[in-house]
Task: inverse folding
């Protein structure tokens, strides 16, 4: 299996090289040259199988012969043993034909754990064999950083530097990063937005001297291994409600589009997904793109669902590449222009391609709050504001081919103020995380300046 850049100016590489590089040298994102597939019988055989088994089957299709199957099995077993629920991603029914997939039973109580715990084992396996230490630089709108720190803290072959927008994430989200005491963890509060953090990470990856000096890699969803790992729960949840004998629809709360693009990947592999509803908050760049055909950046608005406070969704480039029939010159032109001008007019044929699968729905703050309360009253389930955006979009999207699964991306206790304000119920942290509030924090505070951050990363790598 070989991987190519969406921008076409980087050589094709193998799976391991694509994972360790994160971003392609030409600024593009890696995708497989061809999509691996499962037969309908192979998908049906996933029913009743442990989550780790399905994960190993999916990962093996993308890794090919670069990773021994026994090593893949061991990585998946170890990664998903860290989850508090035996099913890893259990389903909860909220109406006759609608379900919530709980993706928050991992160590940092967010869906990012599902991919990050596996990614940490993958890095361990590969880097140990190469006697190599890499520096992970990641931007987080709240959950990626905490999941990365939980997965990689104390590991011998990786340093982790997490950038988060100061004052724009919840206290619980912040503490999952900043209370880590291991020497291989550095956290930086950036005086700006998540989009500023993400732009700094991309600038760092395009600085070839920095990449070589610190052996830079990334675990944001620009890293295709994250997408592979996230595609797994589409298979496990779909077969649990009747796939492949009937198609399934998903409602996905989305900011950076990685979680929704993972559904596209599962569909390319043969899973019968009827539709993916991309649910956004007021930061509705994705909803507008699918509705109007114009991908246009706006000002970032702070909301009660901060992990989606994003106006530049990295993984949209992967979908655009597919929608323009893998024309890398056009993809490079479009996203270079987007970086400069802040908008792309999607070609009509590409827009039609996207509309075959994706629907965009933007949800207001008021509707998010009402949905948290209504869900509690109707089902007894306490959901976080991101999940509420997904449930609200389900109710707004019209006639959907069922069954419908809403991805629940975070535990309600990660956003206690928003949940309590909407429902008058304060969610409790799970027992094993309750000491977070008492642990000392450790982080740097820097301006949203790429040179300042790059200097910080260099100094961290030298310690």
Result:
């Amino acid at each position: 299996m070989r991987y190519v850049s969406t921008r076409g100016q980087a050589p094709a590489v193998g799976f391991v090289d694509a994972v360790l590089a994160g971003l392609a040298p030409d600024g593009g994102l890696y995708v497989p040259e061809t999509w691996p597939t499962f037969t309908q019988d192979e998908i049906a055989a996933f029913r009743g199988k442990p989550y780790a088994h399905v994960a190993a089957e999916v990962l093996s299709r993308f890794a090919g012969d670069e990773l021994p199957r026994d090593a893949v099995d061991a990585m998946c077993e170890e990664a998903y043993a860290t989850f508090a629920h035996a099913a890893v991603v259990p389903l909860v029914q909220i109406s006759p034909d609608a379900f919530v997939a709980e993706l928050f039973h991992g160590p940092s109580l967010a869906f990012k754990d599902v991919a990050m715990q596996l990614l940490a084992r993958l890095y361990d396996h590969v880097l140990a064999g190469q006697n190599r230490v890499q520096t992970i630089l990641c931007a987080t709108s709240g959950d990626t950083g905490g999941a990365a720190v939980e997965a990689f803290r104390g590991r011998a072959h990786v340093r982790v530097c997490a950038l988060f927008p100061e004052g724009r994430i919840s206290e619980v989200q912040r503490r999952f990063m900043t209370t880590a005491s291991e020497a291989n963890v550095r956290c930086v509060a950036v005086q700006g937005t998540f989009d500023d953090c993400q732009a700094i990470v991309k600038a760092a990856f395009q600085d070839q001297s920095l990449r070589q000096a610190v052996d830079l890699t990334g675990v944001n969803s620009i890293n295709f291994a994250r997408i592979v790992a996230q595609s797994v729960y589409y298979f496990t949840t779909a077969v649990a409600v009747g796939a492949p004998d009937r198609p399934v629809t998903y409602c996905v709360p989305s900011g950076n589009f990685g979680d929704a693009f993972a559904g596209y990947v599962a569909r390319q592999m043969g899973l019968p997904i009827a539709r993916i509803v991309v649910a956004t908050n007021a930061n509705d760049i994705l909803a507008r793109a699918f509705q109007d055909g114009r991908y246009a950046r706006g000002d970032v608005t702070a909301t009660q669902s901060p992990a989606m406070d994003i106006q530049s969704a990295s993984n949209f480039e992967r979908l655009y590449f597919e929608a323009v029939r893998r024309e890398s010159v056009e993809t490079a032109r479009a996203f270079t222009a987007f970086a400069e001008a802040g908008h792309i007019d999607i070609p009509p044929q590409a827009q039609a391609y996207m509309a075959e699968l994706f629907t965009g729905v933007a949800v207001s703050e008021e509707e998010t709050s009402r949905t948290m309360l209504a869900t509690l009253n109707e089902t007894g389930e306490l959901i976080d504001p991101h999940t509420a955006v997904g449930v609200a979009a389900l109710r707004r999207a019209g006639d959907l081919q069922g069954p419908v699964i809403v991805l629940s991306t975070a535990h309600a206790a990660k956003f206690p103020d928003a949940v309590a304000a909407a429902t008058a119920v304060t969610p409790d942290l799970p027992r094993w995380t309750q000491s977070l509030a008492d642990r000392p924090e450790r982080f740097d505070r820097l301006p949203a300046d790429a040179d300042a951050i790059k200097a910080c990363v260099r100094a961290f790598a030298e310690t």
In short: The mean pLDDT is 95. The CA atoms of residues 257 and 315 lie 5 Å apart.
